[in-house]
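Sorry, I am new here, but would you mind making up a protein's amino acid sequence and the tokens describing how it folds?
***
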Amino acid sequence: MSKRAIRILLVVVVVLAGLFVAADRLAVNFAEGEAAEKLRTNEGLSETPDVSIKGFPFLTQVAGGELDEVEVGIKDYDARSGSDSIRIADLTAHMKGVKFSGDYSSARAATATGTARVSYDELLKAGKSEPVELPLGATGKVVGLSDGGNGKIKVEVEVSKGGTTLPKPVHVLSSVRVEGDSIVVHADEIPKKLEVLGVSLPLPEGMVRDVTDFKQKVDDLPAGIKLQKVEAAPDGVDMSVTGSDVSLTG
């Protein structure tokens, strides 16, 4: 074969390769859009999520009936919390081994891992909205949550007696953990007494924990993923989520 023929052959190969890559990218972009729209509809999302199909080439993955990896990002997701809901921010899930049905109507991933966040304002909704009774006619309720440093949550408790609210709220440092499908906030240490309007008020631990400690149920994350771990962060509680045999599109 002459040098000129070889050059022509190389040009043809490069052009065909470019066309294949272009077709592959068009196909993956279309598939990402279809999957995102189906996920939005199935989960009742207000905005279309981001769906990114990893790996190249896409068309050979389709031919094999399984995608290597799919990443899903949801900016805001309203998960159920009992009869109420809690907003989950910046939820990202990495799904691997995604197999889809013959008609492409559904897809399931072998495994999924991800992260998300619940702001302190959202978590505060789980605290008791009504004041809880304390000794000597006093009451207390949680009015604020914030970062306590070193993986702790600072819980701000408002104490009142006889219709008068203490000028200075009580603060306790609390740990946060996962218990089943709930985020649990548990005070590390409870103060033994408190000065209220010139009166030394004893604080039995059980009564105070009725104010400071609470659970936030999160049992409706998308695609059937579950809570795995939680950690206090500057802007809220960071969550790790996980799942197996999870649904991407229905």
In short: The longest strand covers residues 84-100. The radius of gyration is 27 Å. Residues 4-20 have pLDDT under 50 and may be disordered. DSSP finds four helices and 15 strands in the chain.
